[in-house]
Amino acid sequence: MKFRYQARNKEGGLQVGFIEAVGKENAANILTSHELFTLSLESAEKKGFFDQLLKAFKKVKYQELVVFTRQFATLMEAEIPLSDSLRALSRQTKNPYLKEAIFDLIGDVNSGLTLSQAMERRSDVFSQLYISMIKTAELTGQLAETLSFLADYSEKDLTMRNRIRNALIYPAIVIILFLLIAGIMVAFVFPQLEPIFQESGVSLPVLTNLLLSSGHFLRQWWFIILIVLVFFVLLFREYFRTPEGRAVSQEIFLRLPVLGNLFKKIYTARFASSASVLIKGGVPIAQAIEISAYSIGSAIYQEIFLDIANNIRKGEMLSSSLAQYENYFFPLMAQMVSVGESTGRLDELLIKVSNFCSREIDDTISNLVELIQPILIIIIGGFVGLLFASILLPIYNLSQVIR
User: Fold this and answer.
1) Residues 179-203: tens digit of each pLDDT
2) Nearest-angstrom CA–CA distance, 80 and 88
3) Are residues 29 and 149 in the same domain?
4) Strand partners, 399
5) Phi and psi for 166 in degrees, rounded to 5?
6) What is the reported pLDDT for 207?
7) Cα–chain-centroid distance for residue 126?
8) What span, in angstroms and rounded, lies between the C-alpha atoms of 88 and 76?
9) 64 φ, ψ (degrees, to nearest 5)
10) What is the pLDDT, as a whole number, of residue 53?
11) Which end of the chain is more exposed for a tag (fewer CB within 10 A), N or C?
12) Are strands 37-43 and 2-8 parallel, antiparallel or unpaired?
């Protein structure tokens, strides 16, 4: 079994970590044999289903992490010692799970670990980019500047996420309502009219027959249909959580007509922002690209940039490596990077790439928001017209028979 422990060594220093043992008593004996005085010892094994379900709600929201980063950057810029800064943050934080993570950071830092090592132990809260940037900042001595960049980057990223989410809320609600109303009409309203049409002997249009058959099927097998839908939703959700599934879903989005270009610019902007700060901080280009690859949020782009980092180590230029992946970047990017390499201002050119992509993203999202409503009205209006036509055509034929 695996246990998480907190203990003090013979010098009085706090030490935290994990230990493998047959049982709790055995784990305590092992710690004692290493001259450690145990303060706490808890099981770190996976819990049952209920505990796993409860853990799903124990999340630190991205917005809360953004606020934490901005406050952390402000405290470090004020030259407040690291431990004192973390204690101040723990007092200001209301989320109990983020507060717990900060307490873990305090304990790990006081026991001698670096901040990046402490954050690595809480990778459930801090992303790979976060940990990599802090690790680089510790090497370059620019922790305050790096935290300030992370705060700016996180705030911009949060703003972009909120704009995309808000743009999708309205169409999602409209589509769900339409599907519900259409389902009720097909399953309950149309079947009520069927006896009238049968008694009159009116020939029904193909569309009406199709809707009536669908209504009978839904009313008879709705429970089985619901179970099958839930099964496939859970199946696809689990698949898209795997590395292969994430890569497949991202590849699909990248191939979509309008959204594909939008996601390409989002990933490019994220890369350029983080890489520029790392290069400016004195990190070698290959290492900066490697670290930035984990900040993008795309398995496809991560693989591309890791490959580019390997090419640079072999002696290739960044611009020529980017040109090999022209389908994943806008045409001018390789040229702008080439200018930065030739003038020795690569970090500045990458910032310009990021700003260019950010403006393009804002314009694309604004245009999408304006176009979504009229497109939805046309599409849903067309489906509503088909639904009413399937009712009105038989009624019109029935009126002709009565005459």
Assistant:
1) 888 878 777 777 777 777 777 776 7
2) 10
3) no
4) none
5) -65, -35
6) 78
7) 13
8) 11
9) -70, -35
10) 46
11) C
12) antiparallel
Who contacts 375 (Cβ-Cβ below 8 Å, separation ≥6)? none
Across the strands, what pairs with 38?
7
- Among 120, 155, 190, residue at a domain's last position: 155
- Determine which of 14-18, 28-32, 367-371 has the lowest per-residue pLDDT on average: 14-18
Contacts of 124 (CB under 8 A, 6+ apart): 101
Q: Which residues does 209 contact at the CB level (< 8 Å), separation at least 6?
A: none
For residue 228, the model assigns a pLDDT of: 92
Spell out a b/e string for 337-348, using b for 16 or more CB atoms within 10 Å of the CB, else e: bbebbeeeebbe
Full residue range of the structural domain in which residue 12 is found: 2-45
Q: How many residues does the chain have?
A: 403
Q: Which amino acid is at 269?
A: A
339 and 363 housed in the same domain: yes
Tell me, what's the pLDDT at 347?
Answer: 87
In sequence order, the β-bridge partners of residue 2 are 20
Q: Are residues 101 and 185 in the same domain?
A: no
Alpha helices in 141-189 (DSSP H): 143-184
Q: What confidence score (pLDDT) does residue 313 get?
A: 92
174 and 85 belong to one structural domain: no
**CB-based contacts of 262, cutoff 8 Å, min separation 6:** 361, 364, 365, 368
* Dihedral sign of CA atoms 343, 344, 346, 352 in order: negative
First to last CA, the chain: 85
Q: Are 274 and 291 in contact (CB under 8 A)?
A: yes
Stretch 3-21: mean pLDDT: 70
Do 239 and 351 lie in one domain? The reply is yes
| Residues 47-98 pLDDT 10s | 444 444 455 556 788 889 999 999 999 999 998 999 899 999 988 888 888 8
Is residue 371 within 8 A of residue 175, CB to CB? The reply is no
